[in-house]
Amino acid sequence: MLTRRGRRASQVLVLAGMGGVGKSTLALWLAAEFRRRGRPVWWVNVADSMSLRGGIVEILRRLGAPESLLRDVNDAAPTAADRFWTFLAERPAGSRNALLVFDNADVPSVLAADGTSTPADGAGWVRKAAGSSPW
Ligand SMILES: Nc1ncnc2c1ncn2[C@@H]1O[C@H](COP(=O)(O)OP(=O)(O)O)[C@@H](O)[C@H]1O
Ligand SMILES: [Mg+2]
Hints:
Blueprint: H1 23-36, E1 41-45, H2 49-62, H3 67-74, H4 80-89, E2 99-103
Parallel strand pairs: 1-2
This protein binds adenosine-5'-diphosphate and magnesium ion.
The site of magnesium ion has 4 residues, from α1.
């Protein structure tokens, strides 16, 4: 993840394991390496849907996203994840080569598009890039 660049570097990395094995610690190390290389890092606590939406809204606000998109995310609109990734695909300033960490994903459905499907279907919050299927 640290050495590959550009479009091809867009990828998903899943750290799985019991609580306490060191997932967040490893993600924090990776985040520090990104920062050291001048790459943006976004860290979102996805323990529950409200926390996820709050984190995404904060990212979008910093990237200057339109109010309608912030509202969609706030209101948990079904199109919110699609719009988020479409917005990122336009590569707004400050988003290039970013690391987006979803921490505390104990309930995977929180990351899914509608809260009941799987985050692995590429329709939710976890994606490589707009429109592409995950891993
Ligand atoms: N490689 C490691 N060596 C020793 N201690 C570690 C290591 N990785 C994590 N820890 C410690 O283990 C504890 C749990 O780590 P954490 O990253 O919070 O786990 P998780 O996110 O998987 O629940 C923390 O106190 C952390 O400092
Ligand atoms: Mg953790």
